Amino acid sequence: MLLSGRIRLYGMAWNQEHTFEVIGSGSVFGIASLAERTQDEYAQTLEPSRVRLLSLNAFWQLVRENPEVNVRVMKLLGERLRRNRGRTIDIALKEVHARLAGLILDLVEGEGIIVREGYYAIPTLYTHEQLSTIIGAKRVAVTRAFGVLQAAGCVLLSRRQIHVINLAALKRFTIAR
After folding, report:
1. What predicted TM-score, i.e. pTM, was given to this entire model?
2. Which of 2, 14, 96, 116 could cross-link to 145 by cystine, CB 3.0-4.6 Å?
3. H-run or E-run covering 157
């Protein structure tokens, strides 16, 4: 369980990283491999973080003794499945700027700070490389996509911090192919 901070969960395939998700305080991770231990899933802190480790036996005991834990785990896994299906569809059908716009909207929803009406800042400083591993693109394509979104007046980059300056316009980009 992530007690504080932010962690990027990722895997490796063909010598390339793919980010599964970025989680924040209060999130549980590592439960995707409850049945068996895997060696191809990793966690990287994006800021100073505190983690509490729960053994598999302790987890199963908690599940057996507390039905509410079952419900929460099912909801968590269902949400992650829904989000991953959406990303798979996006990678297959959308251009990079549309995928990036969708990711930025997810980041605004998950961690965005309202600076003023219609203007949001994403506090975590993501590199173009990190963002590219989330949306299934090359770093250079993410840089170009940011250029498209900035030229359209949707976002502004300042020292790696993403600012959303026109949320409605950014939402329209997510529909684009």
Report:
1. 0.73
2. 96
3. strand 155-158
